[in-house]
Design goal:
Chain A: GO terms for molecular function: ABC-type transporter activity; ATP binding; ATP hydrolysis activity. Chain A: Keywords: ATP-binding, Nucleotide-binding, Transport. Chain A: One of its GO terms (cellular component) is ATP-binding cassette (ABC) transporter complex, substrate-binding subunit-containing. The complex is a heterodimer of chains A (403) and B (305). Chain A is of the alpha+beta class and 403 residues long. Chain A contains 11 helices and 20 strands. Helices cover 26% and strands 30% of the residues of chain A. Chain B has 3 domains: 33 residues, no CATH class; 45 residues, no CATH class; 202 residues, Orthogonal Bundle (MetI-like fold). Chain B starts with 25 loop residues before the first helix and ends in a 14-residue tail after the last helix. Chain B is mainly α and 305 residues long. The longest helix of chain B is centred in the middle third of the chain and has 34 residues.
Amino acid sequence: MAEVVLDGVGKVYTDGTRAVTSLDLTVADGEFLVLVGPSGCGKTTALRMVAGLEEISEGTVSIGDRVVNRVPSRDRDVAMVFQSYALYPHLNVRDNIGFGLRLRKLPKTEIRERVDRAARTLGLAEHLGRKPRQLSGGQRQRVAMGRAIVREPQAFLMDEPLSNLDAKLRVQMRAQIARLTRELGVTTLYVTHDQTEAMTLGDRVAVMKKGVLQQVAPPQELYDHPVNLFVAGFIGSPAMNLLTGALTRDEAGDFAVDVGSQRLSVPAEVLAARPALAGYAGRSLIVGIRPEDLHDAALEGAEPAPGAVLRAEADLVEAMGSEVLVHVSVDAPPAVTEDVQELARDVGAEEQVPDPDAAHSELVARFGPRTRAREGAGVVMRVATDRLHFFDPETGLSITEDA
Amino acid sequence: MSAPAASDPTKPSPPPRPEMGIRRGLASRIVGRTGGGLAAVLLALIALFWLMPTFGLLVSSLRDPQEMSKSGWWKVLGKPSDLTFSNYDKLLDNKDMTRAFFNTIWITVPSTLLVILIGSLAAYAFAWLEFPGRDWLFLVVVGLLVVPVQVALIPISKLYGDTGLFGTITGVVLFHVAFGLPFAVFLLRNYFAGIPRDLLEAARMDGGTDLTIFFRVILPLGLPAIASLGIFQFLWVWNDMLIALIYADTESAPLTVALQSQSRAFGANIDVLAPGAFLSLIVPVLVFFGFQRYFVQGVMAGAVK
């Protein structure tokens, strides 16, 4: 067990492409840290630099107390689980799992014992004699895990280990990985592009964009207090609603934000938590509303307080069983920044980036299953105004205490 | 196998049959047609026709030499009791021929093994090690493929004369190795390069050095290519006469050269030639069947994904 520290790590390929920029990251001893970001954000490169499969252009990587920049992979004492599993096709499951131990010249009886133990933990005991091609995807994935745990390394590195599994199996294996790593208590650096995996598995989650670390925090904090538009938009599904609003201040000194023709009052505690917000009075800013912070007023019975209501027409109602996603259109311009475009690019929907000059923007609200919202009908939504997010339209940063 | 069916511009490809769903390559369509009864009969006939000389050679080698000069080999088929192993007995007593047979083995086996060993090591380096000028060097190796054997005959003769290799088995082996390597490196590099990178990286993470990766991952996975190369190289060297004729003396001459010296301008020692030739033919056949199972496809299945 050891701490893994990345200190100002950068990667520049020989053709000049920069994959990672001054990455500072500490994975504490026994911690499960998830690196998440859209494809091409440098997360895998960062992992491969820790593994020793990629040369480190700048900065240092240490495992334990040892700087490993010049240490070859085989001497770093870390184990890696590959996205493709990378099982040796000519070896059976037992030899695949025991390969690393054999290369380390452990005694035969100990190898046998350790492989048996790992196989039992992973439920592979009856498949030890099989070749990888005779296994199902989930079993192959477990063999890949077994190859890592049998070595009892200082740290696990996992490169999207679940992305080749179908959705149902992925959920199952996700739980198994969580249980296993918690039991073993081994320092783990886990790379994924799937924010659900990141949120459920990580003790802490590090969000990267274009080779630059955006925020490292425990999952809930990341969700509740994203530092910028990118993190806000990336974490959470459905994504946070982002639209352009204007902050106003009335004679009484109360703040409100104009969203199109409707006005939402900004509670005093939000202002207290975000002192810098006052400086935006009279200016436009980006308002973020999580889908679950939009409630169906009709379901709640009580008439919502003025200043906490959005009225709109439902364009699309998606019943998920446990919840209902209602897409509505409000007459406020959508927030379009470089971050928003980057997020759209990640899901392959560049053309769907809304026109920044559009008069309307789409919101998604997450209602309870008993909602009576119907497509084409109007909906009254109570907004949990104490949970509004505000971002600077220029920098995309969350508006907090620093002006 | 995914070559588009329309890749042959000389003849319009027939429209794909509806039940096939996807269009198949020309080769697989031809193979598909051969399943029919008529095609099978036709192919069997062609194969039999092709085997005729070999069969004739076998029968001739089993006939009495006196009989052979009087009638064609097929006459014996009406009277199988005339077949005899006496030619083979005599061949085994013939010191020149047995020595030539073992010379052939002493030339062929090292030539094949050395080419496989050096070729696969070089191929691994060209495929997976990073060093400056690697791709240029590989191009040079590929370029060597077009150098004909004949241009080297005289310079190498001089070299062998100076170094005392002329007329030795070692000299013949070295020549075969030198001219076998470009193809070996070319074939194996391309095969090794197709092995998933993840596998090598996994082995590296598991504690492998380049050497252990080579022996424990690359070689086992490269077996199909190595087996093909081994058979090719074995056949080339086994059947070679030109190089042996030039560089081997009578002591070190292989079977091909020894057999050739038995044929005369008028008539031949058919009682020596026929069994000798058949002996020289049967060994590569056995080698081929021995390695055949390594040609089986799908060795890589289950490695990744």
